[in-house]
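[step 3/7] fold_predict: job queued, chain A
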Amino acid sequence: INFPHTYPQHSQPRLHKMAEQNGKLVFNNTLVSRLVENKGPLRTLREVHSIGEALQYLAQHSITAAPVVDDANNEIGFLSVYDLLSFLSAAQAEKGAEKTLRSLLDETSSKVHNYKANSVLKEITEPMSKGYHRLIVDLGEGKKLVTQSDVLKHFLEFENAFDDVVKSLETLGLTNTANRIPVRVLSTDTLAQALKALSDNDLNLVPVFNAETGVLETTISISDFRGATVDDLNKSVAEFRSASNNALVTVGPQDSLITAIRKALDAGAHFILVANEQTPISVVSLSDIINVLRGIDEDLHSRQLAVYGRSAMKRLAVTNVLISGMNGLGAEIAKNVILAGVRGVTLHDTKLTTAADLGSHFYLTEDDIGKNRASASLKNFRELNPAVKIVASEEELTTDLLSRHSVVVLIEVPTKKAVELNAFCRNYKPNPIAFIRVDTLGLLGTMFSDFGDEFVVNDVDGEAPASYIISQIKEDGKILVVDEEPIAFGDDSYVTFTEIEGTSELNGKEFQVKDTKPFAFYLKDGPEKLSPYITGGIIHQVKKDKTLNFVSLGDSLKNPRLAEDTDFSKFGRAYLLHVVYQAIYQFVEETGRYPGVSEEDVARVLAISNEINAQADNPTEINEKLVRQLAQGSAAVINPMAATFGGIAGQEVIKAATGKFHPFFQFLYLDALECLPTEEPAPEDRAAQNSRFDHQILLFGKKFQERIGASKVFLVGAGALGCEFLKNFAMTGLSSTTGNIFITDDDVIEKSNLSRQFLFRNWHIHKPKSVCAAEQVKKMNPSIHPKTFQERVAPNTENLFNDQFWNELDVVVNALDNIKARLYVDSRCVFFEKPLLESGTLGPKCHTQVVLPHHTAHYGANPDPPEKSTPACTLHNFPHNIDHCLQWARSEFVGNFETSPDEINKYYTNPNYFQELKEAGTNPNELGEKVKAIQEGTKDLPVNFEDCIRWARFRFEDYFTNRILQLTHTFPKDAMTNRGTPFWAPPKRFPVPVHFDANDPTHIGFVIAAANLRANVCNVPAPTDSNRNRDPDYFRPILATISVPEFQPAVDEAIKRQAEQAEQAAAAASSSSSSSSMSDNDLANQIESLPKSLSQLQLKEDKYMEPEEFEKDDDTNFHMDFISAVGNLRARNYSIPEVDLLRAKLIAGRIIPAIATATALATGLIMLELFKIFNDKRTAPDFLTPGDFRNSSNNLALPQIQLFDPEPPAVAKDRVEVRIPDPSHPDYQEEETIVVYHPNATGFTIWDKLRIDITKDATLADVIEVFKKQHDLEVDSLALPNGQLLYASFLATTKQRLPLNFLKLLEDRSFDLEGKNYFLPTFLLRKGYDTAETATIVVRFTDL
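[step 4/7] structure written:
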């Protein structure tokens, strides 16, 4: 690969974007073989060598490490001089030196990574970024060693492709306190002592100070032992270092990354000390540097990047988090933080696993009972995200442990201890350590945050800055915007302007706004007089940072800063919860345990609550029942509360690390006491069973646990929400006795799923989600009974998900990501009268909804709004934002590489293709489009890859030059509409052609992607050797030989400029599509003109071409390369800001932003509603009286948690509706009276049904008579569900059917009951002279 070190002048504004993309290309395209071309052969140790022999061999060849091979020459481990000497320094050197390497491998060896010669940097730098210094490359004729230094030396050739190299180590987070050095070595210490200091403290490098002067003299690291032998162990460090002639090498925190790289390479060091003069700060390793250069794994974190952005993700990647207290809540927080991609997590706990822990901690099993909770779950957490360094700690919770982290989360820590640790964190220098204390005590959740005196929030609401197109600027300063989207910002917001012509004095300046209306505003401090406005102009919202001044925990206890109330039915309760929470922990400090269910314990907590409340400046009323409920359940940690607060606290960790989104300020309280049984269970019913469900039994009793164990639950979807739900089901024991969990998902696992669908691992990729998810949760709780399907829940699968299936369910849980599927499942739940739990997420937002038969509104009553569509004329000719450009690019991809090849295959493998389409009634215009797709696809068919490059070059000219020249010829810049207004008035943007430049990365990127895709669909081999099909230097000489004819706009295409026809005419001028009607003769002629054969192409498996199905998450398939290039070049035509590949993927791929924390919050809240269903809780009896169930609307960015009563179902009522029969005469209106009918009721809801029972011998007349006799209703018409009209009172032909057998009439019309004894026809009914409206009518055959 070759990237220019100087870019064309017109590319300068895009340098940052290009650096991001080019750096990625270096890692994606550089072959590993290039790094080892000039290196010698691989040196190996044999497993039968003794340690002494191994040291001698390594010293002889002056190498620091080598792989160990067995008798078959298979590499079985890596050992370094440091590994060998460390072992000897801990043992008796004379005896230890005789030990064989085979016996040592299991204790100290490093994993061997083997790669092929055609592996790329992206592959080998993944393990290198995690601490592996050297890897093996198999070149075919032999093996060689590739090291971190080899990678960085190669990187120096392309340093211009990386944006971060000029940033300081401090900015990049490489001076993090987690990398600090807690010990120092003196120059007089022996080498054995230095080795012990390194190994005991798990360090890679220690500073060495002069024993007499205390001056920093040198360093010693695990890579500094080249040539060392057993005899060197007793030498002083000074003597050993002087012999190896190693001078002190350091970098400062403000030094750039490139400086650190060069110093490390010059010194031959894997580690380098960061110091301020004589004060060591931390250590930077080559692994750290490679990790920075690799950047964010966009394949894995694309959905999360859409929420946080690169800057925040980079800050996360250098953040080390301590989570102390690994109960179920700690596990939930750890999961969410690890999935987010922090640098490191320390799991801390001093407690041992009990049986009850298994009811909320999903990574503990029965085999772990009696083991430390942090250590027992470490392996599973490491599997969750291998890129995060995760360690377990069983030591006491000390300030030294806290000081190694930048964010600290405390769970199950009593108040007195928490106050002490908080004081240490907020006073830590040079920067405070962010402090979070969080607990779930039964059905109470609480969190306190303290991020220091001056914490800066750089995004207070999580919304992207808005931009608007100016339509007019009035003389009085009123600024109007195009009425596409109403203005989202309010008064006192900040804006800036660009591209204004006329009132240009506003361009580039920042103003506050006032008097904001939906499509207009004024400037607060704008110029007194503005120049006359001509045209154009973009308004850009400017988001401002916000500084928060947190108060310590100690100072907050008496006068707490409480976050907004979370439950609309519990206003003002937060302070009471604050008092009781303190009282419970005071009880813990007094007794060493949580309160139990005894009256004595409850009385003591109540007394403490009263004491605390009496000391408050504004005491509250103590609710004794509430205190009792909270105290009795405080020892329990249950899954729904752990999941809920795991999401909330996990997001607070991310806020603390990044400044992204507004923290809760400062105490948050949420209780769910309405989940408790209406009657308090007896003490014996709450007694511990020594089971995983003891904490749930403590709160709800054994009968509740038995009921959910026998439940039958249908989970629709096994993606992000589905994974969380399944984990929650396993923890709570759903279906753990006689019940079932039915799971369906028709999707397979992709890499991008792994960052939030936490049940899946790398080895699950391309396997069914439902199957893998079920296997994983069975490990968490072997007693549950999942049954999996891989089918979509839809009308065409009703034979699988049939009446019996639905009737046997207790509850349905949706975990879907599209509206159509949600609506269908909702309709099934309404028909079968089953409770539905609905939830969804969008970035940091989430909602939950409980749907209860006959008690609440259903999901379809207020569905999510459909996506907004863009007019075709805007996409084809008048784009004014990057979304339009990328939508058009996606459509061109589909047309060229999906639709056209598919139509070609259908036509050339089926001689009667078009005849069959005609007979099926296909529209002539649609047939014409198919013919055109075949014509386009078979034009200039390639024979070799150079033909594909030529095709791509001509496409470039057509897309970005010729079409624009034609459009601007038809509509010059000064064109006017028939109303005398400028044709190119906002939001239209006047385009300019882009002329091809082979040195422009976007231009050449388009050709590379388009040529490869053309080759793929035409089965033409591409030159993949040495990645030539991706190498710009391979393409440029070929492109130079291609002659492109000069385009001449068609002078006879002048189009009338009537305003109402302008956009349609413009579309005809330059769009490749046609809306004109096509005659049969024209169509026949076009079909006749198609090539008779495709002899140039090779027929493969009954296909001439290989259509490309769009896949956004595969960076090697050229799909997004093509779409990104087309979208950005289109943007360049219209002077629209371009975007990088990730942003293009998010827009064109319609990726829904998603993060694990919002998913956890949503599923936790839904689980609380599930518990209420099984506890037979009540809905609100009226508007003024709250019920027990809650819907929610939440936004972790604001932050906002809002719980509220669900709406009751709408009741149909008598009404008069006004209709306009003829839209051309809107003044003429007719009124229709609608009379609501339902037996024994004044109205009905969506949940009700009008059941019509008949026998299989009934006639059509009998059916109509049932309505008359039983309901006094007249039938005007009856239609089958498939739309066939069976009867109409105004049609004599249908009246002839009245004496005929009703069931036979259905059979004669090929209407299949599909094994059911009922169906749902459509009736038009009348009561007297008025239209009658009824509930859903179900006609049932009682004897079928």
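[step 5/7] annotate
Confidence is low (pLDDT under 50) at residues 1-20, 1052-1076.
The chain has 42 helices and 44 strands.
exit 0
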